Amino acid sequence: MTARITPDGAQIPDGLVWRIFDTVPDASGELALVAKSELGQATVELPPGEYVVHVAYGRAQTSDGLSVVPGSNEKSFVIDAGALRLNSAVTGDIPIPVDLLKFDIFTSGNEGDRTPVAEGLAANDIVTLNAGTYHIVSHFGSINAVVRADLRVEAGQLTDATLYHHASQVSFKLVSEAGGEAIADVEWTVKTPDGATVFTELGAFPTTVLAEGDYSVLAKQGSQVFNREFQVQPGAAREIEVLTAVY
Fold it and tell me: Which domain of life is it from (predicted)?
């Protein structure tokens, strides 16, 4: 058995996982696995009969029937696969550190009908998928900077896509005067205008990522609480100073 990405493509040399199943369900109602191979060209010995072959190449896959007759049998499979490479930037082509990016890939369709295909992918990972349209979710940081897009993967092609975030990295420090040294042992809380808490941390100089919008930050040091309102706009990383006075 051999496989190709497209009908007129070259034989895939490696990276394949072949599974061959009997067509008669076992006592549990499942199709019994009768052979497996991870070679580019799989050679197995099977009694004559009917089988179902499943072949996977990355996250692309296909299944088809296989009729085995006495002697030598050959069959070629077409996986109809393409590849997708994802990255993100802040609006204005401001690069994002790759360690702050994660991507999820879902099937297309309405929100309730989508199923996960791949989750937690790093920026610039190349993912092999069946040709088709997919729903992509880009996470910048871990709070609320999220961008979604529907992308088309074409068979035999690598699709490069960059998604753009309306967000920014933000760091905080409590100071006694503008431009002063950060005060240690501060409990930080960031809230949205409706009072929802989106970030908490203990430290002198915490950093996070926030989506575009209005926020308030509270800095608790001992029994005192200092606060200020601030706005996040898409752009380079910025620093928010909170003075030891109530805003």
Answer: Bacteria
Q: How far is CA 200 from CA 11, 40, 182, in A?
A: 53, 50, 17
CB 227 within 8 A of CB 245: no
81-165 CATH, one of 2.60.40.1120, 3.30.450.40, 3.40.190.10, 3.30.160.40: 2.60.40.1120
Find where tokens 């960031």 sit: 190
Is residue 238 a contact partner of residue 209, using CB atoms and an 8 Å limit?
no
Pick the CATH number of 167-243 from 2.60.40.1120, 2.70.98.40, 3.10.129.10, 3.40.30.10: 2.60.40.1120
Question: Token pair of 71, please?
Answer: 């002697």
- Predicted TM-score (pTM) of the model is 0.87
